[in-house]
Amino acid sequence: MTAYTNEELAQGVEFKILRANTNAFRKPEVLRHVLEEEARAGWTLVEKFDDARLRFKRPASVKQNDSNLTIDPYRSVYGIGRGALVALILGSIAAVLIVVAIVAVALR
Predict the structure, then answer these.
(1) Between 43 and which of 15, 22, 56, 68 could a Cys-Cys bridge form, CB atoms 3.0 to 4.6 Å apart?
(2) Residue 70 to residues 40, 41, 88, 94: CA-CA distances in angstroms?
């Protein structure tokens, strides 16, 4: 993993990690879209940890323009949130159980 240098920290450089609850960054078009969005806020990619985590940096002075952005420059989650993902999974399981129950009743 890339280390932070004393020079970067002394110059007022901000860092953040952007996470996806899925492997969203595996798709090149999604990764390109995210990098373009983050670049508008002054963030540059430092490293791609895996298909779900990216590390960015930007000069702290860039935050003066944050009020003009259409995205949250400090967002740390991309795509579907954890709660929504859990709800989607539980809803899918419930739907499958209902279908199985209906089929079982119909076959009696």
Answers:
(1) 56
(2) 9, 9, 27, 36
Q: Which residues pair with 47 in a beta bridge?
A: 55
Can you give the residue ranges of every domain in the chain?
6-80
79 CB burial (10 A radius; 0-12, 13-18, 19+) = middle
Exposure b/e, 31-68, CB count within 10 A at least 16 = b: beebbebbeebbbeebeeeeebebbbbbeeeeeeeeee
Successive 10-residue mean pLDDT values, the chain, 108 residues: 70 91 94 96 95 95 89 89 74 87 86
Q: Is 26 within 8 Å of 84 (Cβ atoms)?
A: no
Please compute, for residue 53, the number of CA atoms within 13 A of its CA located in the half-sphere on the CB side: 5
What's the whole-model pTM score?
0.71
